[in-house]
Structure formats: structure tokens, C-alpha cells
Amino acid sequence: MSNRPNILVLGVGNILYTDEGIGVRAVEALQKAHAFSDNVSVMDGGTLGMRLMDAIMECDHLIVVDAVLAGDEPGAIYRLTGEDLRKSLGFNDSMHQTDLVDTLIFCELVGKRPEAVIVGMEPHDYQSLGTELSPVAGQRLPLLCDAVVAEVRRAGGDCTPASDGHPA
């Protein structure tokens, strides 16, 4: 048995609000395009908030994929840690039911808080009702997925492209 860390890739967001669902759309694309090592779990967290606590406490390294409001141009891709986590929509109590920072604090209170990083994208439109990503976010989705793959590898996991490669 190896000592590799348990890594959770968690896509969050509300897929009913255009680019707010970028995290969920990214994990869907990753699951289609890649096979992950056995120490990596990829999960659609949607807007579950506190209900994600069990899954979060079981991992050593948490990679959250989400829309991020950091003031750059739409489609910009970010890697955030520490206090910068609050730039992620899931970490500032937007459409999500519970602030993910609160969820991490509860995990810490019970003695199991993983190292957390956000891999995110600046949304073009996260307020319009619609299940499709904006053209900008859709075009940049493969780059967001590449950034998540790099983060998985940095954390001690691995993945290989599926036979059909990147999603269209």
C-alpha cells in the first residue's frame, strides 16, 4: 500500500446559472477525458455546501473547481490558496447553500481539514438563467481542465488521457 495522499477534485456551482456552473462542467469534462489514479476522486459537488463535509474530511488534498470573481477578464484561470479562497463563488456564499470556507472550518473543528486549493475561472455571465456556458467559458474550459490536471499531479495524483482525448 502506498502513502499517496487522497485527493478530491470537487466541481462546485449551480449549472442553472450559465458560468456559475463552470466547476461542475469542468469535472464532467475531466471524467470523460481522463482516467485518474486510484488516490484521486472526482466529484460533482453542485451546491451541496455542508453536505460535502464527509467527502472533504476523507481527503488529504482538496482541489475545488469553481467560478472565481477576482476582477480579471472573463476566461482568466486562477490558482488560489489561503485567504484568496474567498474569491471563489463557492467560498463567498453566492448561489451555493453554504460558504465552503465555513465547511472547511467545521472540518478543522472536528480535526480533519485537508489542504485546499481553488482552480477557477473568471465567469463571463453567472447571473443569467441558462444551462450552457458562455462562449468564452466554453472555449476556455479545456485550459481550466489542464490546470486541474496539473494541480492533481502537484498534489501527488496522476491521470492519463482517455482514448478519445479532450472533449469537443
From TrEMBL:
Gene, per the UniProt record: hybD
Pfam families named among the record's database cross-references: HycI
Cross-referenced InterPro entries: Pept_A31_hyd_express, Pept_HybD-like_dom_sf, Peptidase_A31
Family to which the UniProt record says this protein belongs: Belongs to the peptidase A31 family.
Source organism (scientific name): Nitratidesulfovibrio oxamicus
Classification via SUPFAM superfamilies: HybD-like (SSF53163)
Keyword tags: Aspartyl protease, Hydrolase, Metal-binding, Nickel, Protease
CDD domains for this protein: H2MP_MemB-H2up (cd06062)
Top-level taxon of origin: Bacteria
Classification of source organism: Bacteria, Pseudomonadati, Thermodesulfobacteriota, Desulfovibrionia, Desulfovibrionales
Keyword Hydrolase: yes
Protein's name in the database: HyaD/HybD family hydrogenase maturation endopeptidase
